[in-house]
Amino acid sequence: MCTTKIYSSKKHVEPSLMNAIKHFILNLITCVFIQFHSIFDYIITIIFDFYYEKKVTKVPPVKNPLLLESATKLAEKIRTKEVKAEEVVQSFIDRCKEVDKIIHAIVEDRFKEAIEDAKQVDFELESYKDTDDLKETKPFLGVPFTTKESNEAEGLLHTMGMVSRKNHRSQSDATVVSYMKKAGGILIAKTNIPELNLWVESRNNVYGQTCNPYNTTRTVGGSSGGEAAIIAACGSAISIGSDIGGSTRMPSFYNGVFGMKPSEGVTSLKGIGLRTEYYPESMAAAGPICKLAEDLTPMLKVLVGDKISMLKLDEPVDVTNLRIFYQKSSGDIRTSKVCSSMRSAFKRTIEYFEEITKTPATKIKIPGSEYSFKLWRYWMTQEKADFKRDITNGKYRADAVEEIKKFILYKSDITFAALLKLIDEDLLPKENAEWAKNLTSEMKQYLLNVLGNNGVLLYPSAPFPAVHHYSSFLRPYNFTYWALFNVLKFPVCQVPLGLDYDGLPLGIQVIAAPYRDHLCIAVAKELETAFGGWVQPPH
User: Fold this and answer.
1) How far apart are CA 18 and CA 16, in angstroms?
2) Is 0.90 topped by the overall pTM?
């Protein structure tokens, strides 16, 4: 009996000991990898800093005070005839011409047509004695706006940044673009994107590369990079972006403006990219990009159209009664370590809310956030799109091996970023569907339980402020700080928090439970008041 007991005890202890050893080794390997990753990031920064050191160009300062106004205030001034729509539109057109030769954000303009549209607005306003009703029916009457090249606008180019679609023009407006026009907005231009919207830089073989107005050697992000850049440079009053993996929030962060990814299914995706239907169950969403937080709510009201009843945008919010949660990093070892300037801005934000709510903020860890990339990668396969066919404009299904050969021989029409996506589609193993679905469900339920109806989550925007052009090829996973919330389909607002010591924008993401978008906006407004929000690019 004694022998049996001793033998049983050994069987019980040994697995426990082995598990402890395995756990220790795994933690050791993880720590070593993270340290190596940090050193690697440091070396990348030094090399790119040295290369781009004397290549920085700055945009000129804003001279016209109209360019600094919110779209909401501009619309009010136009309605009350304090200023003519023609003057407002001309002011933004002049600014576009001034800055675009530096940042290369605009891919096609309709400046002449926009001036005619503005003159028509002024003419029609002459016959109005009471313009109060226009505030509701046409809240952006006479206000100039832009949209990304991938959002369809009747008569304008819609190449998706693809050589194979170089001369393609839209026959109609994307639903959200038509909504903005009906709200009185005047489209003045379309802006640059990455090829097929699928990269973290707005660069393609049709239009070239867009540069950051805060530092032209830095990225503007993707895919709404041209939009965020022209908004930050005051070339447009407001903008319509779209977001399937951070495509509105990433550029908004890099360019120091506000960007909103609303709740699942409230904005139509018809005419966004190559989509021809509404697609309410997609990870993607259209959303506003703007300099000033007061434009977020009126813009979102326009973009959601008849889905307005799903949201509570007019419900008052007392931010001092909000429950504040935060998570300092995703935990995904593929991503870079969050840098000191981002950590400092994050800490200041938490401390500010602890002060005004008189309650300590609660630190959390979303279970599974360390698999942000893997989860986003899986859910991208569930979108109603065929990348391999789309990348050839429907002519045939592309093959990774063949495109690699063409690329090596300089005969490929696609960008390197698109080639990487093709390699991922064809040559890399797929994610486990059951695992991804189950974990996503667990994460959603966890966050729903945490946030409830009166909670917001503060989450880092990214490991670094705007990085140098091309350096993202060496750090390709950092975008998953945004992409996680496409997977979860929660509303998120990207909020600017001033500039770092290099003059680059800082920021934070604010997340709420589904259809509690108004909480995100309320926090965005509070942070704008506390930390200054958008700041003009230094000159």
Assistant:
1) 5
2) yes
Answer yes or no: 247 catalytic.
yes
Tell me if residue 489 is catalytic. Answer: no
Helix (H) or strand (E) holding 456: strand 455-460
Rounded Cα distance, 119 and 84, in Å: 8
Contact between residue 59 and residue 103 where contact means Cβ atoms under 8 Å apart: yes
With 80 as the cut, is the pLDDT of residue 511 above it? yes
* Cα–Cα nearest to 229, from 96, 339, 350: 96
Cα separation, 496 vs 506, whole angstroms: 6
Strand segments (E) across 185-308: 186-191, 203-204, 208-209, 238-243, 258-261, 285-290
Q: Do 365 and 326 meet the contact criterion of CB atoms below 8 Å apart?
A: no
- The pLDDT tens digits of the residues spanning 447-467 come to 999 999 999 999 999 999 999
Among residues 148, 261, 270, 374, the one annotated as catalytic is 148
Dihedral angle of Cα 467, 248, 257, 230, to the nearest 10 degrees: 80
**Beta strand extents in 112-184 (DSSP E only):** 144-148
Give one DSSP letter per residue of 375-408, joined into a string.
HHHHHHTTSS--HHHHTTTTSS---HHHHHHHHH
Contact 465, 341 (CB under 8 A): yes
CA angle 349, 355, 360 (to 5 degrees): 85
Catalytically annotated residue among 150, 178, 223, 369: 223
**pLDDT tens digits, one per residue of 275-329:** 999 988 999 999 999 999 999 999 999 999 999 999 999 999 999 999 999 999 9
Contacts for 413 with CB less than 8 Å, ≥ 6 apart: 162, 163, 164, 205
Catalytic, out of 236, 242, 247, 282: 247
